[in-house]
Amino acid sequence: MKAERASVELDRRADARPLRQIIDSIRATDPAVAPTIAEFRLLCALAEHDTAGAENALMALGEGPVRLVRANNVVFPRPFIEGLIARMVKDDDKARAAFTAARAEQEKAIKAQPNYGPALCVLGLIDAALGRKEEALREGRRAIELLPAEKDAFQGPVMLKYFAVIAAWVGDKDLACEQLETVIRGPSDLSYGQLKLMPSWDPLRGNPRFEKLVEEAKQPVVLK
């Protein structure tokens, strides 16, 4: 798929323009296919901090849960994405309302699968966004316990990545960077482009330790 190939430029070079150009071309020339690339539209809009574009992409995705990274098992309730978009424009009231709704949905997912790491890490992110620091950190750590990188080399680093986001959102920048050091120095789905562009990492912008890690993420991982 052209959009998938263009998204590689976003990951490798922190350049969302090729993806946006492909999306605009598909929407103009083949509208019937446009709904199938809504996830890429959302990814591109978030990377560009384009709130209107993100809202339109989310509308195109419908009412179901959202997967921001196709390669992992972390699925977000739709209101979580609404909260993330509201955070980009610092609309605190709208963000809190969205994350509160997301929490209610995520609690149902946890009840259905109480020991499922990806669901717990999403709850941790929601609680971090709501200022529930202790709960957020506890949930993030529990997700890592359930899916440690030593036992699951693919999903384990995903739990560490989102724990880093949780730590960043609750204001513990050192803890966030500690987790990131582990993630970027091993195989994971976290790319240079994600760190450089995605709003999840905005609380760490300007932190020297984080900015150094962003530069380090440019380099390919050498497996030993």
Describe the structure.
It is a single chain. The relative contact order is 0.10. This protein folds into two domains: 62 residues; 115 residues, Alpha Horseshoe (Serine Threonine Protein Phosphatase 5, Tetratricopeptide repeat). It has 224 residues and is mainly alpha-helical. The model has no long low-confidence stretch (mean pLDDT 93). The two termini are 32 Å apart. The chain contains twelve helices and no strands.
Gist?
This protein is mostly helical. The protein has helices at residues 2-13, 17-29, 38-47, 51-61, 78-88, 92-112, 117-129, 133-146, 155-169, 173-184, 192-197, 208-216.
CATH class of the largest domain: Mainly Alpha
Report the strand count: 0
Helical proportion, percent range:
55-70%
Proportion of beta-strand residues: under 5%
CATH structural fold name of the largest domain? Serine Threonine Protein Phosphatase 5, Tetratricopeptide repeat
Q: Element order, helices and strands?
A: HHHHHHHHHHHH
Described by strand count, sense and barrel closure, the largest sheet is: none
Which consecutive residue ranges, at least 5 long each, have pLDDT under 50? none
Number of helices: 12
Q: Terminal Cα separation, in Å? A: 32 Å
The CATH architecture designation of the largest domain is Alpha Horseshoe
Tertiary shape: globular
- Structural class per helix/strand content? mainly alpha
- Quaternary state of this entry equals single chain
- Give the count of structural domains: 2
Kindly report the average pLDDT value: 93
The rounded Rg comes to 17 Å
